[in-house]
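Folding Query — how this chain folds
Tokens — whole-number codes for backbone shape
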Amino acid sequence: MALYTCMEAAMKVLSQKGGSEGQKVVAIVQEMMEGRRVPRCVETTNVHPVIILEGLDGTGKTTVIEGLQRELGDVNCLSSPPECLRSFRQHFDGQVSHIRRAFYLLGNYACALSLRKHSEKPVVIDRFWPSSIAYALALDHQVVPNDMPEELKGALQMPLDLQDLMPGPVVWLLLHLPEAQRVRRVRHRAADGSGMTPEEVKLEDQKLPTNLMDIYRVLKIGDDRLVEIDASGSTEEVLRRVQEVVISKCEQWRQLTPVSVPISVNWHFTRQCNYHCEFCFHTAKTSFCLPSTKDGLEESKRCLARLRDAGMQKINFSGGEPFLHAKALGTLVRFCKEELRLESVSIVSNGSHITAKWMEEFGYFLDILAISCDSFHEATNVLIGRGRGEHVKQLESIRQWCDDFEVLFKINSVITKHNVNEDMSAHIERLKPIRWKVFQCLPIKGENVGDVERNVEPLLIPPEAFQGFIDRHRRCSSVKQVLVAENNVTMKDSYLILDEYLRFLNCTSGAKVPGPSIRDVAVVSALRTAGFDENMFQQRLGEYEWSKDKVLQKERRTKQAKRTGLMVLSLALCGAALALVAKHRRCFS
């Protein structure tokens, strides 16, 4: 029997096997997801807690909710599935297990998505994902936590894409009563007509409550577990215990590092490279490339989708040299543009492995292609380690292919002692990139400084030499329009960089320190360790017009305006000429 570990899996089952009702549920949840995908949508500034109450029947969840309403005042009380799916519940309760579980898991996602519109006040949820998975494991699989099959252990962790949807602070509570006391309450409730759900009856009949509580205790939500609350004693005593935990969790939340929305993300999905640039700050320390591993392409897509759902608008694929994995790269470019519908998809490459065939197949889905070129003298490129003497020739070909396949062309240059005195203005004018990014050579411990293969120190230039290079090139007006300069201070912490393992790299210490991978934790949790400086990102003009559709439309409008202007001018001149001829005719007559 299936246990679903992501929204996509549950949607697939309901779409294909859940009949028309299943398709309606999927459509509702998809619409909710689309409504969430707006700029800067990560819910990281919520100040009101979301309190999730779990526990077996008879532990007093309803009583605690009523008490919280009295204590906290205005509270939103929700349940999973939420109101928008409530009418489907009776239908799916009568379905086979794997379809029923898919519905209830999607109910969790719908409930999480609905939290955004309730952020103005505290929220209490009566049962959520922990109950969905605990009941599935206890009833469908009848597992014992300390003797669980290996293939089911992954189900004990809350799905990452569901964690991504949760605002903070979230307080996970598990109410617990001595079994004899709980059973008395359940029987009393059944006797007075309150009734029990079919699953509750089955649970009691099979005497599985103790096993179900054990499953609750081993569930994980990221690094958290459910906080067990003793539900015995008076209502006031239980509420006091709950409030103490809520206050403590909220205080912990306030101590966390604020998180910026990942608008623009750079994924260095491979460290391998066919060049050997002496200044490289992302060197070939490993050969791992997730998209080229078994099942890695699909995992890459899932992680990219989660980044998109967290607010990412632009993805940049880099390396190493990304075109060493050209087919996988093209597949991801197409996926990001066609399925994720990102505003911008870009690549940074040394250009050596780019072909016209690849551009013909995938160029339609690519917004920007940035080529690294540090000199227009091949001898200098060879000295730096960038190729063997044909780098500029390949650059010229790529420039033409970008025109042929309507891809925005960009140039990146790293300035070192080898090229700081070179004048590149004429070449930049001729090639007409939409952007010319000029970087001061950056030392990074563990990559090009220290006990490593490369030593960048002999290539470093002082800030005034770098600024002199920039000032010299800004004298040319057409170059000035596209030149974007980044010195060491501007560059170091203003990029969100994912390494080959999908870990954000924190450069604040002068080294690249990886945090947890988004393959293992929620995107927000990973972002907390990134050391990202959003103010510096904006200061270096990190957000610009990066959609080729918008840029090309603007260019077409400009050309059309020029044509219209010329036409109006021509008509005016013709009119003036005709008037002059008519005047002369009158004079001669």
Q: What stands out?
A: The chain has 23 helices and 15 strands. Residues 39-44 have pLDDT under 50 and may be disordered.
